[in-house]
Every structure is written in C-alpha cells, then in structure tokens.
Design goal:
The chain is built from 15 helices and twelve strands. By secondary structure, the chain is of the alpha+beta class. The strands form two sheets. Strands 1, 2, 5, 6, 7, 8, 9, 10, 11 and 12 form a ten-stranded mixed sheet that branches. A two-stranded antiparallel sheet has the order 3-4.
Length: 399
C-alpha cells in the first residue's frame, strides 16, 4: 500500500513535532512553553517563528558557532523535514533577529534557573566527597561584538596604550565538579567585580554541598554570606589574609580567627576557620616549593583530614575546564558572541550555558548508564554527536 508524505502545519502547530529532537529531551517542549508564557512572551498570533521554537534556536546558535543564522534554523527543523514535510519556510535573517528581540532574555534565564540542576548522583566519579556534593565557582570574561550599544552597556578593557579591541562582559559560574553541569551563573559588565557577581550564586547552595573557590575570592563578607547557606567551604586563601592562629589540631592544620581591621572597626565579630598549609614542589624545577593555604568550614579533622582536603582541592580545576568548554571548545574558538545588542547578548549568554548543559547532561547520563566516569568521554566529540542528530539522540537518555 502506498504511503503518503505527512504535511506539517506552519507556525505554532509545527512546534508539536519538536519532541523528536535531541534538544527537547533535555528541555521538554511543554516546560519551555510554560516558561515562555510565565514570562509574558507567549505568541499572541500564529507565527512562522513561535516563541518556543526561538528558545531552541537560541540554544542551537551556540552549538553551531560561525554557521549562518538560517543554516542553524535548518538544522533545528531537520526533524520536521524527516517526518516528510517539505514546505517549511526558512525565515530570513531579519525575521530571526526580530523573533529573538520579541523573546528577550528572561525566558532563557528562567529556563536555565528551572531546568539546569546538579545530577547529585553519588555513583558518578568525582561528584561527592564523604556525602558532600562537590561544587566549585569561578569567573571569566566574554568578548562581544564591537557595537556602540555593547560598548556602552558592558565596557571594555584599557591600558596605557588605549582601549581593548572588543567590549567585554564578565560572568561567574557555579558548577557540579563531577559532571561539569553549570547550575547557577551571573552576567555583568566588564568592570563588575567577580566577588560582587558571586554573591548572586548563594541561593543555589545548601547544606550537603562542599563549595570550592580560588584565592581571588576569599573575603570576609563573601565568606560569611556563603557559609550562611549551610554548604561547607574549601577555598584557597592568599597569605596576606589576616588569620590569627588559636589552636593547632592533630593533623597539623589549625583553627584561626579571621577579622580584617576594617571589619573590626564596624563592630563585626571574627569568624573561625580551619587553615591547612602545605607546599607543592615541581620535581623538574629548582624553584622554591609553592605554599598553598586553604581555609575551610570543616573544623573537625575527624570529618576530613588536612591530607584529604589538600588532595581534594585540585578538583576545583573542574570549574576552569567547564568554563573553557562553554566559551572556547563549544564555540570553536570564536572570539566574540554573535549578538550586537545588549539584550541579545544576555539572551545568547543563557543560550550558551543551556547548550553546554545539554552536552554535559548527555555525557553524564551516558556515563551513568555504562557505569563510567564522565571525564573519560570527549566533550568535543559529544558536541558533534548532538549536531549530527536531527531526529533523535544517538546516546540513550531517558527523557
């Protein structure tokens, strides 16, 4: 019996068929539509580019850096073509830009806030330390298109030779170490302090986590704010941080009071931290061994010894790798984001994080299904698997 090709409706009805795509496995269409509606961005009339489709399109832009806007849309609707429809129109570049402006930043941000979560899977190697979920945060910058509005909104670097070539945005990200899943982030202007931006990460922390950070961040006020979340902290501190030793512990670490002079004048009280100091020497170097100084809220060496915490701290580098994956490997080394308007820069930023989350979620699920370690899988190869998948995932993932 002859089979006839299936014709798919244009406009809003076409999004019903996005369920066959890999993007909707991680970000279900019904959830996307709900968030779009909650943000007041639901379509008020039938469109060739409905808002839910534009959400997926913005995510796809980061999967295909350097690829023309219309070509990205062709990949996104490839699943619809597979179903037998050959009458879908590919919107022009101006229509795609208008659709992105209608959508704005908020739905992308809300989608990340509601859907991007740690897996919290104890069987995945590197995810836990003694029943504490390992997380880490750090900051970086993103180069932007050189437009007057981007420059005014975000600023740029400068030195004695003049201003930098590109406007820059600064951001911080909080990630699960074992899976590299970014589950909280904040974007700001170039001159915004990473310490200031980091304050917005605290709502995503809670008891049962162990949060690590580099020596840029340990400040008295930020430490207190992070400690109030109930999460344990393990941060590297500069040797200039004023710590007054009060008690030496059995493993060689010691308790100390931390109260900078400016905080003392405000009437604040000292906080008690545990200090772990050790040296690392490069066997191939004649240089003096580098002194590492860690501070932690884990005050009892029976809970975690100094040797265990010193051995654990290198896991903090997972956030460095995570940032490199999202801004460099995922984007194929492209210098700047695509967007020429601040609102679309912020939208594209959340799309980039969602694209990274998609890839890392697939990798984590694949590792979990096979009983392996996500670090044994290639991030770059996983991106290519997703890009070559138009009508369904190559890796088996439970929706």
């Amino acid at each position: 019996m002859a089979r006839h090709a299936k014709n798919i409706s244009q406009g809003n009805a076409a999004t019903e068929h996005l369920g066959v795509g890999v993007l909707s496995l991680c970000f279900p269409l019904q959830k996307v539509q709900s968030i779009v509606a909650a943000c007041g961005k639901a379509d008020k009339r039938v469109r060739d580019l409905p808002a839910a489709l534009v959400v997926y399109y913005v995510i796809a832009l980061s999967l295909f850096p350097g690829v023309a806007y219309q070509s990205v849309l062709r990949w996104l609707i490839g699943g619809l073509q597979w179903l037998g429809n050959h009458r879908l129109r590919i919107a022009c570049r101006e229509s795609l830009s208008d659709a992105r402006q209608r959508l704005g930043e908020l739905p992308m941000q809300r989608l990340h806030e509601e859907m991007a979560r740690p897996m919290s899977e104890k069987s995945l190697k590197g995810s836990y330390f003694k029943d504490m979920l390992l997380v880490a945060f750090d900051g970086s910058t993103l180069a932007l298109q050189d437009t007057p509005t981007n420059s005014k909104e975000f600023g740029r670097s400068s030195n004695q030779n003049g201003e930098g070539a590109w406007p820059l945005a600064r951001f911080v990200a909080l990630a699960e170490c074992g899976t590299h899943l970014v589950f909280a982030s904040k974007l700001g202007a170039y001159k915004d302090s990473e310490i200031h931006l980091a304050k917005s990460l605290t709502p995503s922390l809670h008891a049962g986590m162990l949060c690590m950070a580099d020596r840029l961040f340990p400040g008295y006020a930020l430490w207190k704010q992070f400690a109030k979340t109930g999460a344990h902290l393990l941060w590297r501190a500069k040797t200039s941080v004023p710590l007054r030793k009060t008690k030496v512990l059995s493993d060689g670490s010691y308790l100390a009071q931390w109260l900078p002079e400016e905080e003392r004048s405000k009437g604040n009280k000292p906080v008690i931290v545990r200090v772990i100091e050790y040296r690392i020497k490069d066997p191939g170097s004649a240089d003096t061994p580098m002194v590492y100084r860690l501070i932690t809220t884990i005050l009892d060496p029976l809970v975690a010894s100094a040797k265990e915490l010193a051995g654990l701290y290198p896991q903090r580098w997972e956030i460095e790798i995570t940032i490199k994956e999202s801004k460099t490997i995922l984007r194929k080394g492209k210098i700047t984001l695509r967007s020429k308007m601040p609102e679309l820069v912020r939208q594209e930023f959340w799309g980039m994080l969602l694209a990274h989350y998609l890839v890392r979620k697939m990798m984590a699920q694949a590792a979990l299904d096979k009983g392996g370690d996500p670090d044994e899988l290639s991030y770059e190869a996983s991106v290519e698997i997703i890009k070559s998948t138009q009508t369904g995932p190559v890796l088996l993932i439970s929706p």
